[in-house]
Design goal:
5-stranded parallel β-sheet, 13% strand, globular
């Protein structure tokens, strides 16, 4: 089946399409090709394996699958594994690329029986396309509208049974009717350090790179619970090792390489530390609005909100309150600073910060 998988990879855009082509090739080469090769996500692996094996045994198309979770956890990889497990082609598109019902109709009209259609960022589809997708997923039929105005005619188009694999980083934005049409929903969790260590070891083996147990542990512990980041850091450490350390990655080489690329012991990078320093040094620990914080570090609001803030919140370094972002005591300690007397007290709130500026 490896030839089928290679064909799938070659025919479709891999996760991280904005990366350099060489980086895409690197990520593609390291993707697991079967459920058995997938490291971590034990609960999802077992559940998905049952869904697929049962469908194959019955000779039927599996239920539609929804994969949700933060970026970099392997949603595209799992979609490829599903197609490989079923020995069927994988067609890849994305929500932003489907701007109207006609775009979706053009995609599904070319689907063959048993094909797997992967829609990345499915929550960003246009509403007319969503409504057409409801019918395609449930009734395997779409109505193609010919003409405009009173003379428009809807022509029903039958579609052979197929499987939709949707991926989203924001499941809460999916409309209820669309969410309900997925027979299996999987929430992907962040990986622990042990799982990331196994991923680093596997990737190093595929790259014929010598990495000691301690060196792999250093990379894994700074990967923010995300396989994509683990492989990216491994790529940078490999460069450092080949140029300055004879090609062998031990703990000292890994630490030196990651220090050069400004990734600290907890996985914080330059942007993360800039946000914390601005919050603590410039604003006394907060509260401060996200827009003001973004201006202080010279980045767009969306960059701070989507790249830096989620990880800082997970670490307990930053809190979102109704009045703005606030640095916690752990953030001050991590920066080696002492919180001033009378600094802002935390008023934790689960609701997102209002539009402070």
């Amino acid at each position: 089946m490896s030839d089928d998988f290679d064909a799938i990879v070659a025919a479709n855009r891999a996760e991280g399409a904005d990366d350099h082509p060489e980086d895409q090739a690197f990520e593609t080469a390291l993707r697991p090709r079967s459920i058995d090769e997938l490291i971590g996500q034990e609960r999802v692996r077992e559940q998905l394996s049952l869904v697929l094996d049962a469908a194959v045994a019955r000779g039927r198309t599996p239920d539609h699958v929804l994969l949700s979770g933060p970026p970099g956890l392997g949603k595209t990889t799992i979609a490829m594994i599903i197609a490989h497990h079923l020995s069927r082609p994988l067609r890849i598109t994305s929500g932003p690329a489907i701007q109207n019902a006609g775009d979706l109709a053009a995609i599904v009209s070319g689907i063959n029986e048993g094909d797997v259609l992967f829609i990345d960022e499915i929550h960003r589809m246009s509403r007319p396309a969503e409504e057409l997708l409801y019918m395609a997923m449930e009734d395997f039929r779409v109505d193609v509208v010919i003409g405009k105005g009173p003379g428009a005619t809807a022509i029903p188009l039958e579609i052979p049974p197929f499987t939709v694999v949707g991926a989203t980083t924001r499941a809460g934005l999916l409309p209820g009717p669309l969410r309900d049409r997925f027979g299996f929903t999987a929430q992907l969790d962040f990986y622990d350090t042990h799982e990331l260590h196994r991923i680093v070891d596997r990737s190093a083996g595929l790259l014929a790179l010598e990495v000691t147990h301690e060196g792999g542990g250093e990379i894994a512990s700074r990967s923010r619970g995300t396989p994509r980041i683990a492989n990216r850091l491994l790529r940078r450490v490999r460069d450092y090792a080949e140029v300055r350390a004879g090609g062998i990655v031990d703990a000292d080489v890994a630490r030196s390489a990651l220090a050069l690329y400004e990734v600290d012991d907890l996985g914080l990078d330059r942007l993360d530390r800039a946000v914390l320093r601005a919050l603590c040094s410039s604003f006394g620990g907060g509260p401060v609005g996200i827009s003001t914080l973004a201006v202080a570090v010279g980045e767009e609001r969306e960059t701070v909100e989507e790249l830096a803030e989620p990880f800082l919140v997970r670490l307990g370094f930053l809190a979102r309150t109704p009045r703005g972002r606030v640095a916690t005591a752990a953030a001050w300690r991590h920066l080696g600073l002492t919180a001033p007397a009378g600094s802002a007290q935390l008023a934790l709130d689960d609701d997102p910060d209002p539009q402070h500026t």
